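Hi support team,

I'm filing this because I wasn't sure whether my run with uridine-5'-diphosphate finished correctly. The job status page said complete, but I'd like someone to confirm that the output block is well-formed before I use it downstream. Pasting the exact inputs I used:
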Amino acid sequence: QSGTKPPPPPSPLRNSKFFQSNMRILITGGAGFIGSHLVDRLMENEKNEVIVVDNYFTGSKDNLRKWIGHPRFELIRHDVTEPLLIEVDQIYHLACPASPIFYKHNPVKTIKTNVMGTLNMLGLAKRVGARILLTSTSEVYGDPLVHPQPETYWGNVNPIGVRSCYDEGKRVAETLMFDYHRQHGIEIRVARIFNTYGPRMNIDDGRVVSNFIAQALRDEPLTVQAPGTQTRSFCFVSDMVDGLIRLMEGEHTGPINIGNPGEFTMLELAETVKELINPDVKIISVENTPDDPRQRKPDITSAKELLGWEPKVKLREGLPLMEEDFRLRLGVPKK
Ligand code: NAD
Ligand code: UDP
Ligand code: UDP
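And here is everything the job wrote out:
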């Protein structure tokens, strides 16, 4: 009869997606460093249901310990190079090893993860009509000839070098995102992430900030790879997560640089870690790896103007927060 309200659905259906305004969010690579902090932030909103898909190559269940068993949280062991059939509203696609020693360990797998993994997540986004965000990287700029790097710079990348599985892999992933957007109308967001640091980084993953802090706490020399004048710009993970969520929720496809423009040479970074954490430690020079970019600093004009985002945590504020986490995990109390 017209004018009468339909009866409420039977109780099992009331919990289904069709009767809720909840947002179901997939995070691939959610057991990793940035992914697990993103999970923490998204779980704070009671309207979000979070599903993590991860193969635990560089991530760990430990990073998600506090959410396991939570009714709005689900963790699935799955490799994104295989198809995935689930129903979601948003996809944060992070799955990919990020540290050079891990992505170079099995380069063919790294490129499969970037290409087939991104293709599968785009196929999923297309089937269910989800918005998808890719965490691309400043490595798409290669060894940049333009400084700082704006999103309009096309990069200077070696297509056959030992880093290519990662940087060319991410470049193809970006291409796939834009082709699915143009050809199939998928809602996409592309973030170009610059070096990020913070609690929960793998202690022995070989990246410079985690190396220096672990070395300082173990009274081992800080290994500056030659020449030491190469630069990076380091973003604290809470700022990064904030930027990624703003990009996902905003109206702009990107690509958008998300990073902290504070630029440091590796020697300056070593001096800072020494001063803040262990003034007695030595700084030594060691051999570098091939194709190491000489300078890197984001131009974040777009993020400021389009997302209203800029980083808040300075390097000298973020390093002690990471030190605290590394002390706990390494069992080295503060003297
Ligand atoms: P991470 O290694 O801690 O996390 C990556 C996660 O992806 C891990 O949990 C890993 O187990 C998972 N994974 C890898 N291959 C997978 C596969 N085939 N299937 C399913 N899961 C898989 O790295 P992170 O620092 O958290 O980086 C997250 C994302 O951000 C990556 O896409 C990375 O390329 C990008 N990024 C990070 C940085 C940085 O400085 N941390 C810089 C630029 C871009
Ligand atoms: N795919 C997936 N989950 C889905 C839908 C698709 O993993 O829910 C995979 C699918 O197996 C394919 C890829 O995504 O390998 C691309 O899918 P699309 O439909 O765009 O292309 P096609 O299947 O026509 O090649
Ligand atoms: N690096 C260093 N000592 C280390 C590890 C790295 O001096 O123990 C240097 C490395 O040569 C590079 C920079 O730090 O110039 C950043 O390296 P990382 O692997 O952290 O990130 P990416 O090269 O991907 O920016």
